[in-house]
Amino acid sequence: MKKILLVCCWLPFLAQSQLLFPESFVVIFDSTRHFKGSVAPSLEIKTQRQLYVEITNRADMAFRFKNHGITVANKFELTRDGSETILSGGFIYGKFKTFYDNPFVLEHYAQHQWAEARGLERKIAIGSNVRYKLLKTQKGGAFAGIGPFYEYELWNYRGVPDDRLPLNTTSISAREWKLNVYLSTKRELSEKIRFEGSVYFQNGFNDLFSEPRWAGAIAFSYSFTENIAFGVNLQTIYDYNPIVPVDKLWLNTFSALEVTF
Quick count: other Cβ atoms within 10 Å of Cβ 43? Predict the structure, then answer.
């Protein structure tokens, strides 16, 4: 079943984060189902001193064939004020899963991000997880995963408050092998209410428990009819040691009207 998300509060989509919350992307629970997807477009046009145009689109799709699965997600945003491009960013994410006749799944993933609003110019990450099925029913499931990943990030100082700016504001990069651990759940609480939640822990192998990155996401949706639902989402990251001195706590909330067909 395909989904189209009509965004009620489009502005928070501009604040994408350095962690993409991949457990929030679509998941196929039914082994007989082969495709599921969603897309969330947004367009704003203003006539002010110059023509102001903002386009945002977010989409994710899941495919399942035999004992394999593929997830692909992307986001694109473009803001132009007259002939000037103010912000043009987004991400692309891909994951490949291999299912076995036991609770374990092997998954490999890669992502590329660019022009994130807080100053992340570019991020490339590639890694693997062993995913364990803690619980699975017709109404949802709970999962845990652990594995290594390689992360490269390039930051500028656009999102740093003035009082924290150093004398040298040249973009700075960092690359490191890290450990990724996550817990997630998706559940139909009733015929009309659905809940999703996930928690992530990431840190370098040199010192796993000193200054890690924590992240979490929760989402509730209420179905008015079989094809129309309203969702509320909250995403947060706390990074003990960001590469540049941005705020350690990042928070994003958005709501959407969901139409399925």
Answer: 10
